[in-house]
Amino acid sequence: MPAIQDLYASEFAHCYGCGARNSQGHQLKSYLRGGETEAVFTPDAKYSGGVPDHVYGGMVASLMDCHGTASAAGFAASEQGQALEPGMDLPRFVTASLKVDFKAPTPLGTPLTVKGRLRSISGRKVWVDLSLLAEDQICATGEMLAIQLKTP
Amino acid sequence: MPAIQDLYASEFAHCYGCGARNSQGHQLKSYLRGGETEAVFTPDAKYSGGVPDHVYGGMVASLMDCHGTASAAGFAASEQGQALEPGMDLPRFVTASLKVDFKAPTPLGTPLTVKGRLRSISGRKVWVDLSLLAEDQICATGEMLAIQLKTP
Q1: How does pLDDT run along chain B (152 residues), one tens digit per residue?
Q2: Long-range pairs for B134-138 at CB < 8 Å and ≥24 separation?
Q3: Which residues of chain A are within 8 Å of residue B27 when distances are taken between CB atoms?
Q4: Do B51 and A16 touch (CB under 8 A)?
Q5: CA nearest B146: which of B72, B39, B38, B37?
Q6: Which CATH number belongs to the domain containing residue B20 in this structure?
Q7: Å from A128 to nearest chain B CA?
Q8: ipTM field
Q9: How many alpha carbons fall within 13 Å on the CB side of residue A60?
């Protein structure tokens, strides 16, 4: 199954966090599996927080933001009975609101897993519940309202 | 007047977003002036969102996160009657919760101003209201609960 971000139309694929067309960016890849979404990312050591062995808060928020909008796109397609297939152009969602609760320091040097669950959909609006884990430890939880971009 | 981040103790000054000791990071500088805080930052073109002319959401959240914790440190000192002076070690605050509402696309190629206002203080907890502007346009608003780190 393709990554959700690899199904964004090319004009919307420049995001520093997750755009396939941004060669300088993180190129986060989110996958829809079994009704939930997941992405894995290992931040480089330079992305430390105030102390060197933890990830800075902006990275945690960034991973949630990119994974959240991808999750919204995946869930919206799934609700409409669309399978995610290579070559399709998935509608692009943008963040209206993102709340992140930092539960524990996020360690550096270990893969981080970001998970998304659909809370609800109403028209172009999708609410997503998020979590970020290091191994089995929940480091942060989040909630997002994402809105589908209107395209001509 | 010194930047708030330049008053963090050296062991807490490694943040990628704003740490004076992270030479690879953004080194955001926040200033307390007239009871409010302000930081200005111009993201490089690589930090685009889905479309190339806008800033990616993670950058907006990151700027708010670093500026918010700096604001909390500045406001807490101010409430205790402490002036911000070179050479002091300011207590370090970390984010417990950050909510960002994206009001309009944030343009690339122009300085962004992040502002902070004190909402309230209770013990080690500081609530900060945030906004991010491009020229006079409010692109995002935010609210943060920051907590002062316990130090030995």
Answers
A1: 899 999 999 999 999 999 999 999 999 999 999 999 999 999 999 999 999 899 999 999 999 999 999 999 999 999 999 999 999 999 999 999 999 999 999 999 999 999 999 999 999 999 999 999 999 999 999 999 999 998 76
A2: B134/B106, B134/B107, B134/B110, B135/B110, B137/B104, B138/B103, B138/B104
A3: none
A4: no
A5: B72
A6: 3.10.129.10
A7: 14
A8: 0.97
A9: 36
d(CA A41, CA A28): 7
Angle between helices B57-79 and A57-79 (to 10 degrees): 140
**pLDDT higher than threshold 70 for residue A12:** yes
Residues in chain B: 152
B79: distance to nearest CA of chain A, Å?
23
Q: What's the pTM value of the predicted model, to 2 decimals?
A: 0.97
Q: For residue range B87-103, list pLDDT tens digits in order.
A: 999 999 999 999 999 99
Q: Which residues 70-89 of A are in CB contact (within 8 Å) with B?
A: none
Contact: B47, A98; criterion CB under 8 Å: no
Domain tally, chain B: 1
Contact across the interface for A58 and B57, Cβ inside 8 Å: no
- Residue from A12, A56, A148 whose CB has the most chain B CBs within 10 Å, to mutate: A56
B126 burial class (0-12, 13-18, 19+ CB within 10 angstroms)?
buried
- Chain A residues with beta carbon closer than 8 angstroms to that of B92: 50
Q: Are the CB atoms for B114 and B71 separated by under 8 Å? A: no
The domain of B28 spans 4-148
Decide if A99 and B94 are in contact by the 8 Å CB cutoff: no
